[in-house]
């Protein structure tokens, strides 16, 4: 049994197809059945909160004319109760409802709750059209419900540990800022820059300003630095223009650590300088130390 679980975990790390080969095709032991739409419910672990209504209407129009060609995949939590939960195919389910259909072709598959959750996340992540906030909530849900660490989520989903950490940090933003991200008005890069703001009371107003004035990430970084007092330096201090190499290095480090890393070269010795990695809290410092593989315990 332990060997089977180990194999499943490896498969999950390679994607949905590795765990359920031809996920929308019946196996030799399965068949396609017509289920009443009223007996089917959405996947409770579905990370997607927004569905493109125009695309759904287009799919509904196709279903009205030709029906559903590809069956959805469902599971039956209780064999004594005629109720089903969607594993894959929620768009087809929603479009069928729009098309005023009463039934939909489906494959009933025996899937555990853990597998169902991971398949829902993987299926959506592979489509790459989740909002950053939905993606962050998907990772958070996996960690909480399956009691996984960031490192374990990273391994299972084939994402880097810093990548997962960067998204999870978005969940600490105020509700108003999260709403701007969810609407697609605030980009991931802008949100990550806002996370380095020390005065959290200024977070939401600055986020709204970024949207209103269409601020670039670089402009936002300069404003955040000024708010944090980092820009309050003596005017007579010599400013060293950063080379493309230094700027590219900063961007790589920012991607790795999920915070506004700064590289400052010495004015009189261009081959020397310092790297500054700000942190927002003790937890954030621990996160950075983990990335550096430093364990103080």
UniProtKB/TrEMBL annotation:
GO cellular component: a single term: chromosome
Cited InterPro entries: Chromosome_partition/occlusion, Cro/C1-type_HTH, HTH_ParB/Spo0J, ParB/RepB/Spo0J, ParB/Sulfiredoxin_sf, ParB_dimer_C, ParB_N
SUPFAM superfamilies the UniProt entry points to: KorB DNA-binding domain-like, ParB/Sulfiredoxin
Any single GO BP term: positive regulation of sporulation resulting in formation of a cellular spore
HTH cro/C1-type domain segment(s): 142-169
Subcellular location, record wording: Cytoplasm, Nucleoid
UniProt cross-references to SMART domains, sorted A to Z: ParB
Keywords per UniProt: Chromosome partition, DNA-binding
Primary localization class, coarse: cytoplasm
GO MF term list: DNA binding
Protein's UniProt keywords contain DNA-binding: yes
Alphabetical list of PANTHER family matching this protein: CHROMOSOME-PARTITIONING PROTEIN PARB-RELATED (PTHR33375:SF1)
Similarity section: Belongs to the ParB family.
Name listed for the protein in its UniProt record: ParB/RepB/Spo0J family partition protein
Record organism: Lactiplantibacillus garii
